[in-house]
Every structure is written in C-alpha cells, then in structure tokens.
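Predicting holo structure, flavin mononucleotide bound.
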Amino acid sequence: MPEKNECSQCFDRTLEHRRSVRIFDPEAPYDPEVVTRNLKRAILAPSSSNLQLWEFHRIKDGELRQKLNEACFNQPAARTANELIVIVTRLDKWEQRVEANIEFIKSQEAPEDVKKRAIAYYDKIVRRLYGWAKRYPGFVLKAIQWFNGLKKPAYREVSWTDIRISAHKSVALAAQTFMLGMSADGYDTCPMEGFDSARVRKLLKLPKDAEINMIIACGIRKPEGIYGPRFRLPFEQVYYEH
Ligand SMILES: Cc1cc2nc3c(=O)[nH]c(=O)nc-3n(C[C@H](O)[C@H](O)[C@H](O)COP(=O)(O)O)c2cc1C
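Done. Tokens:
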C-alpha cells in the first residue's frame, strides 16, 4: 500500500476532528463566511441522476431561531450553536432539475449522438421513474418490476417511498460534505434528526414533497461539548470480502 500523501493525512485529521459537538463556545471567534464556503463545497456532492434535490436554509438568530430551537426540543447542540442549517430535500422540484440537466447537456460541446443519449436518459428514464412514482401506487409499480425482473435484472426502487429514500441519500451526502469541510476549517457541527419535522416545515413554509433531511448545528466546540470518546464497532465486524 502506498504511503499516505499530505492530502490523505490531512483528510485523516479532518475525520478525526469531526465530532458531533453538543456544546458550542459563544465566545470563540466565528466567521459565518466559513459556513458559506462549506455550503458551496456541499453542492459538489454527488446526487442521484445529478438532480441535486437539496436546499440549505440558514437560521442565525431572531424569533425564527428561538422557534427552531424549540422544535429541536431545545437540545444543547441547537441551543448553543452559532447558527443552524436545515438541510431539505426538494422532491417537488424534480421536473425543474431534469430540465436544468437537459439544458446543461444541450449547452455542451459534444458529439450530437452523445448529447442525444444523455438527453434521452433524462427525458425518458428519469421522467418516467419520477413521474410514474408520483402518479401510480407503489405496489403496482413494484409488481411490474417484479415481473420484468423474472427475465433480466430490473430496477426495483420505483415507488414514491423509494424515490424519497433516494433523495435523502443524495442530500445526506451533501450534508456530510458540508460537515467535513467545516471540520477541515477547524469549525464544528452536530447533525440532528431529533426535531419536530411538522413544526420545522411550518416554520420554513416548506411545500408538500419537501422534507427535512437533517438539521446541522454549527459553531466552535467547548471541550465539554464532546460527550465522550468516539465509539465505533471494530472494522472486522462490518467488513466482508466476497
Ligand atoms: C442522521 C443523524 C442524526 C443525528 N441526530 C442527533 C441528534 O438529534 N442529537 C444529537 O445530539 N446527535 C445526533 N446525531 C449525532 C450522533 O449521535 C453521532 O454522530 C454519533 O454518536 C457518532 O458520534 P460522532 O459524530 O462524534 O462520531 C445524529 C447523527 C446523524 C448522522
């Protein structure tokens, strides 16, 4: 195995530094621009069919922040954070994002047949997957794919619930990219799913089909903000070679 280069060692330090911090230091020098920088890094995360169905809502202070803290059950990470980022999935925007991808492909200098194939992927496959999932009951779509799967491999994640899971997967990758970026900059975060999603949706006036993926508390740690040593299962317990 090759030696870890400088970048790889830096990445190790970033991973080691990232902990879920529950108590932030209000006195520590904090530059909100670091958060902006890392949200810009977050959108470089991969996403299913490059639909980028994410949105980042930033809440620093004021009445909305108070209400958001309450919706997060006033947990210490939310209460003591310099700011909160609500990470949202926007499945309601899937058609718009398909169009954006098609427009991007059209704008590229590439052989016409390559562009045609890429456009057909969005126009036919993605549109059908999302459009049908929205329109028809999941059990019907799954039954069709079960039947298709008898003869050859078939894509099974075709229900609206599957599509929601897919959106959350991609959006969580953006969330993790954000947290690692923050860590690389010496800043701290705490991902949270302990909140009243109905209240948060209402506070942010989110439409139907937009969902909260997680809320990330941001700040700089107090030493007591790390609740204990990091626990991970031994690698051998989660690693299989086939
Ligand atoms: C999706 C998700 C939701 C979480 N929700 C909360 C939460 O509501 N409150 C909290 O204090 N920590 C929360 N955590 C943090 C985990 O407890 C933490 O990541 C885990 O204990 C491992 O510790 P580490 O992040 O310091 O390595 C959450 C983490 C994830 C990934």
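The mean pLDDT is 98.
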